Amino acid sequence: MSPHSRASSNGSDLPMVETAQRARAESLIAEEESLKHKEAQSSTLSLHPAFYILSWIFFSNFTILFNKWLIDNAGFPIILTCWHLAFATAATQLLARTTKLLDSRKSLPINGRFFVRTIIPIGFLYSGSLVCSNVVYLYLSVSFIQMLKSASPVVVLFFSWLWGMADPTMTQLFNILLIVFGVGLASYGEVGFSWVGFMFQCGGIVFEAMRLVLIQIMLSSEGLKMDPLVSLYYYAPVCAIMNFIVALASEIPKFQIQHAWDAGLLMLLLNALVAFMLNVASVCLIGKTSGLVMTLTGIFKSILLVIVSVIIWQTQVTLLQGFGYSIALFGLCWYSLGKEQLQQCYQLITSTSLGKSAMAPERRRWIILFGVLCFISIITAVGIWRGPSAVKKATDMFPSLFGSE
Question: Can you supply one Gene Ontology CC term for this chain's record (predicted)?
Fold first, then answer.
């Protein structure tokens, strides 16, 4: 081939090369746009973290209120706990075989030794916590139970010291004294105080604190983790057997099948489903928000539960009790958040640069969150002091809706 023909051949190949490169570039651009479209579509379909927070608040509070109502009307709290655990056992087994929600369990070294040394002891403590937490509804109001639960971090910290998982500090001691003082005032101001109920609630707090510390010793120290659903997958069968043994000696001799019919089979099924959905909501919430938001949400969830229970059951809350609960909540905030994070919240609130153009999106979200929590706290304060009278006034104004005596 002559040089001229070779040059002519190269010249004719250049447009083909350029066309191929252009086609390849257009293909890459199309793939990139398609990927962006899929990402935008997935982000559009994904739910906002606020949805998971609200779902957790709803199922947590609804489970407690539902249990209280069912136990008040039907009794047999230990048998009810057995029913919850049997339902949870069946539901987690079904989810493990049909979904990927429990795939994290495959990373756990499950064997006979692990089961005996970890699952059974933690399951025993979990069973004791569930039994005490349900039996206490027979003796105490929901609002007072929530006030007593404010002392839970104190007991957890005490057992952490006892097992050498943490070293005591003066700041922690001050927080403990503050929370204990607040809970003591709330207990002293309780009108319907019951020593039996108080001891059951204390027992539930102790069992739960020991369970959390044991989880930290047995699992966290070895780098193992269990989300709420995986925990339920392993603990529910163990707890169901233990609770059934307790029920055999206490409630089953007095139980008749007519009691279940009186409570309503549909209500029992719905109650177990709501309790199980709380664990699903907890799993969905993990990783969606920061620890600070979770702490604040948990505190205001408890306050919201107090106000709702006061309105539903028209529970009398004294001024001393409300003052003690406020002190306990302040101590709980100080213990959970710490001085630095509280100072950050204060600086965020008192910041003068509140203009939208000068404010970062993260700061705007914090201010919106703080505003919502303040609104909830105001409604809570009003409801606690005016709840029973407000319900009575509504009953008097609309007798056709509420019925007349």
Answer: endoplasmic reticulum membrane
Phi-psi category of 76—alpha, beta or left, where left has phi over 0 and alpha has psi -120 to 50?
Answer: left
CA–CA distance, 272 with 269 (Å, rounded to integer): 5
Domain limits, the chain:
55-140+194-286
Residue 250 neighbours by CB distance under 10 Å: 16
pTM of the model: 0.74
Which amino acid would we find at residue 224? L
- Rounded to the nearest angstrom, the gap between the alpha carbon of residue 354 and the centroid of all alpha carbons in its chain is 32
Tens-level pLDDT at each residue, the chain (405 residues): 544 444 444 444 444 444 444 544 455 454 555 444 444 444 434 577 778 888 888 999 999 999 999 999 989 999 999 999 999 999 999 999 999 888 888 888 888 888 888 899 999 999 999 999 999 999 999 999 999 998 998 899 899 898 888 888 888 888 889 999 999 999 988 888 999 999 999 999 999 999 989 988 887 766 778 888 898 999 999 999 999 999 999 999 999 999 999 999 999 999 999 999 998 888 777 767 666 667 777 888 888 898 888 888 888 888 898 899 989 988 888 887 776 776 666 665 555 444 444 445 555 555 555 555 555 555 545 554 444 454 454 445 444 444 444
b vs e for 147-156, b when ≥16 Cβ sit within 10 Å of the residue's Cβ? Answer: bbbbbbbbbb
- DSSP of 265-301, one letter per residue? HHHHHHHHHHHHHHHHHHHHHTTTS-HHHHHHHHHHH
Residue 257: what residue type?
Answer: I
Token pair belonging to 189: 């101001």
Say how many residues make up the chain: 405
Query: Contact 59/278 with Cβ under 8 angstroms?
Result: yes
Q: Give the whole-angstrom CA distance, residue 30 versus residue 20.
A: 15
Q: Supply 173's token pair.
A: 């001691």
Instruction: Name the nearest CA neighbour of 233 among 156, 78, 122.
Output: 122
End-to-end alpha carbon distance in the chain:
113
Determine how many CB atoms are found less than 10 A away from the CB of residue 232. 25
State how far the alpha carbon of 390 is from the alpha carbons of 172, 217, 381, 382, 386, in Å.
Answer: 40, 49, 13, 10, 6
Gap between the Cα atoms of 78 and 346, Å rounded: 45
Q: Which of 238, 268, 259, 144 is nearest to 200 (CA)?
A: 144
